[in-house]
Write the C-alpha cells for this entry.
Amino acid sequence: MTNAPEEWEVWYPYWFWEEFYFNMWGEVPNRKEWLARAIEFTGDHELYGRWMLQVVKEWPCSCAHNLTKRGTGRKAWIGHAAVARAIQCPEDIVREAWGYLTREQQDLANMKAQQAIDRWESQNVKNRP
C-alpha cells in the first residue's frame, strides 16, 4: 500500500542520483563472476533487505527520483540499488541474477523490497506539504 498521491513525482538529473556513483549503470570486467556474486547476494533476503534499507537511508535523491514514480518497477529498482550500493554490481547483471533465484527467494526478496519502500514512504511522503 502506498500513501503517495498519484501526481507526486520527483525528478533529478542523473548526476544527482547516488546510484550513478556506485556502478549501477556501469560495466564490470568479468560478467560471469559478477553474475555469481549477484545470485549469491540476492538469494540471501536478509542481507539483501539490509542493503535495501541502507539505500533508503543514504540515497535521498535516487530514492525520491525512483520511488515517487508510479507504473515503474519500484521493487526492482530498490533491489538493483541495494546490490549496487553493497558490491557495485550493475543492474543488468542483477536482473539476470533474478532469473536464477527460486520462487521462494524471489518472494522473500520482494517482501524485503516492499518493507524498504514502505520505510522510505513513511519517512518522506507524510512530510510532504
Observations:
- The helical segments are 31-43, 45-58, 60-67, 74-87, 91-98, 103-124.
- Confidence is low (pLDDT under 50) at residues 1-5.
- The two ends are 20 Å apart (CA to CA).
